[in-house]
Amino acid sequence: MTTKPRILTGDRPTGPLHIGHYFGALKSRVELQDKYETFVIIADVQALTDNFLTPSNVRDNVKEVVMDNLAVGIDPQKSTIFIQSMIPEIAELTVYYSNLVSIARLERNPTTKEEFKQKEKLFKKNITYGFLGYPVSQAADITAFKAELVPVGEDQLPHIELAREIVRKFNEIYGQILVEPKAQVGNFPRVKGLDGNSKMGKSLNNAIYLSDSPEIIRQKVKMAYTDPLKIRLTDPGHPADCMVFYYHKMFTDPKDVKIVESECKAGSRGCVACKNQLADNIIKFLAPIQEKRHYYETHPEIVDKIIMEGTAKARKVAAETLRQVKEKMFLNY
Ligand code: TRP
Ligand code: SF4
Questions:
Q1: 221 CA to middle of ligand 1, Å?
Q2: Which of 13, 186, 225, 292 would bridge 71 by S-S if both were Cys, CB 3.0 to 4.6 A apart?
């Protein structure tokens, strides 16, 4: 039996993962899997809350997201990857927790508010019960595993805070069973988009995906937002107002970043060369990740086995928590 503390983290399978996911969450997820017993949820039920008209989109992305996780270094020997909808115990916990959260509390959540705005076409001003309530279901994801730590992007903090409130309330009313989780945010808690938008995202069309080919990366970097005042090579530029410089800080050796900065300011560097250098570094950075991904893409039966074994293991853990919860709630008939 392991005595390591637990992590629960994961992703919605709505599209391939991008470098925002990587620096915001995946990187620390990989580093932490040695010290923690890690569970990685492929949150298909949550993904359906804003993809209910297009369920095949969710289905098609489950394996993609699993492969992205494996490609960045999630090791199935150390971490358990599982599919949310295959653990009905999570749905059951969600029902019990729903009594502990008011509608007003859910309506105050800045992350769901922002997502709701972005999904105007789908919701047509009327938020669904399922979407408003998905943070309750996320609290069930986390607490089903009695996770102590949840490594996530910054946008997830309101959800973790809600999970903590639910745990405190549950334990106070029914008895001390659940574990209050803590969030851990990566080094680049919110990676900006290529266009300078404060968030990188699929629907914003401003992301570099972990699976993007070198040609696509070059194209995307070429289109990135740069200092509008720097037109000619000799114009002194403002790196602080340039997305290329922003990404140099993530992908380029710190010594070279200093050179980029001083040459840009001095007007001795052109944007074309600067972008080529960045694209080269991103491509170099992604090469080993893509090589690993290629292995899994060509061995789908291995991916299936990882998912099925992980889900079976996860279900046992969630079932034991649900048993304890129901016992405390006098539901142990
Ligand atoms: N909401 C997370 C996201 O959008 C995905 C997720 C679902 C999650 N359940 C979770 C993250 C539990 C951490 C813990 O990426
Ligand atoms: Fe940005 Fe580089 Fe151009 Fe400066 S030289 S504005 S850092 S792309």
A1: 29
A2: 292
